[in-house]
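Before going further, it is useful to explain how the protein records used in this thesis are read. An example of such a record is reproduced below.

***
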Amino acid sequence: MRSRTDKFYILPPGSVRFPADSIFDKKLRLVESGLLKTLDFRALSGFYREKRNQFAAGEFWGKIMRASAVIYGYTRDGWLLDKMRAAVDDIIAIQGPDGEISTAPRSEQPNGSSGADLWERKYVMLGLLGYHDVVKASDFSWAEAECERVKKALFALLDYTISQVGEGEGRRDILSTGWAFCGIESSSILEPVVRTYGLSGDPRHLQFAEYIVRRGGCGRENMFEAIRSGKSPYLIGNNGNPKESIAKAYEMMSCFEGLVEFYRVTKREEDRKAALELYKKLVAEEITYLGSGGADGPFNLGPGTGEQWNLTAQEQANPGLDLMMETCVTVTWMKYCLQLLRLEGDSGTADNIELSAYNALIAALRPDGMFFEYFPRFNGVRNPRVNFSYNVGGFDLSCCTANGPMGLGLIPSAAFMQSDRGPVVNFFTDAFVRCGKMTLDVRSSFPEEGKISVTVGGGAFFSADILFRIPWYARNFTVYRDGEKAGYDIDGNYPGYALVRGPFGQDMTVDVEFEIVDRVEISGPSVDLAGTGLVLLRHGPVALSRDSRYTDTDAPVPFDGDPEPKLASSRVPGAALFSCEYGGHTWIDYASAGGTWDGSSRFVTWNRPERPDTD
């Protein structure tokens, strides 16, 4: 739903194409063939058809449908579309005449499936919404009738849920539902409720969204008010007992995604303030140099081990942390940043999407495309451990494996966008982009170098401007038009963007060049002294690791204290993005490290600095 409150807009499906040899195209097609086209949708809907009442198993249908829709929007694979249509036929056939879609028996609704009932319905709605949106954007002869059928199912499911949840006799308060987090997990249904209202215009649907927001998302405290007042996310619902903490990272951000959608409808400034305050707090306190967050300690030790906020930015080098940076958190953080990028037009949120995409997200995908690492780590080997999974039709499916494809699917939508001024270039990657009639043919040497060339096409004359993100790691950002150095404006409406003014004609070029700053980051202070004073090397947004296939990973790293070291670029066959020599060691991008997924490629990202000789 395009909102007049937004500064940036997502381009229609199919508007962005990466070349076949690019990292993002490879990953998108890998997960499409390895996961989305392999999974049996009928097995996923079986949890609903047979009312198995198994904890959270109903989330898989919606997660996979949502991811399939956005990735189909990129690949336009007809086989995947046919599979999606059949799956929607199936779930609508399961729906009861009163709108019911639930894995739980009626006697246990709306909190069956061990408390995951509303959570599962949320994902059914998100799956149907994703399918609706991609079909609506198509030119199929059957698209209009199909959209009407899907909307009818959505409205009926929401009406059925409203009959069970809310205020009034016979209804259950949403904060008394859920499995462990005092209603946070159930309250995250807010996002599809608001989006469904955008299709229905039914006042009862908006009233239900208002009720969810009014209840505050958490039974221990109104977390929207708490965040707006400056409270740290890891302290939400704190009752003084670390083993009863409820600051579940993934679910909390999902609630705030819904709050952003609610703001788009109501324009209540207090909701926008809360959403922005959460973002600022997470950047300062939780998001690591790999673009994810959450851990199994040291402060919150409650349910969802490894999945709660824990001041992870501060503690990210703490060797006592075993489980951290859940892929579900990575994906939801990227989605949340995209919500705020649309809303605010601020380059900082695009910086964070890029950070996650180049590090935690693509590193988590196994080479066969059939598994996303549940808990990535900085040092060690790729981690097969999961907290939650089911065997679905012979396929071992975890929440993170079901969520990971969505993170990949949103990359084309974040990389290039549209504004009222014209196209927006967020990622410095090869692509062909359609922005209305205007096209951009983008060629880049990133991340090796900060060079990008854009050739305009599609017509003889365009009055539009082009916005280029100025990344946090760029120095000497320079623009050229048709080979001649040109200036650019900084428009306060789009913080952190270079506004290159039009008009543009057919075959005109805009080149951008900048120096990519390399950095050494120093960890700490951690509550564990062993996690204080370690070093991590970065080339722009790309975190670098030592891998045992190419260098000694046990030796400390020489470090002379220069926070911006000089890296000697080198070519290492196992590095997909970037490799270099520094301090007598070979370094490769974190996403390529550990690529064998076994002990033969142990890797180190947080490194012990070499101690000076004190003799």
